[in-house]
Design brief:
- This protein has 87 residues and is mainly α.
- The chain has five helices and no strands.
- It is globular, with a radius of gyration of 12 Å.
């Protein structure tokens, strides 16, 4: 049993990507493929890490990028909304 996120990138890495190159972050989110192993890294874990560690602390940066989330798997839209909803 695992507890917490098993994201392929840490919140720190995702935050750095967002700060350095928002285009590169969106390319990564669009192109990254989940593991086919049982219990492997998933898009949900990646989206959760992005929401919790990057979107919630810096929502303005993502509100202006909201249209770009249409390019991504729907799980990223769910976690974007959750990240923006948190105080």
């Amino acid at each position: 049993m695992r507890i917490g996120s098993d994201s392929p990138k840490s919140g720190t890495e995702l935050a750095q990507m967002a700060q350095d190159d928002m285009d590169g972050l969106f390319t990564y989110l669009r192109e990254w493929q989940p593991s086919e192993e049982l219990g492997g890294k998933s898009r949900n874990d990646l989206a959760w890490e992005l929401a919790e560690q990057v979107i919630t602390p810096n929502p303005e940066s993502f509100v202006i990028q909201i249209e770009r989330f249409k390019e991504l798997d729907p799980v990223f839209i769910v976690w974007l909304l959750r990240g923006l909803k948190k105080p």
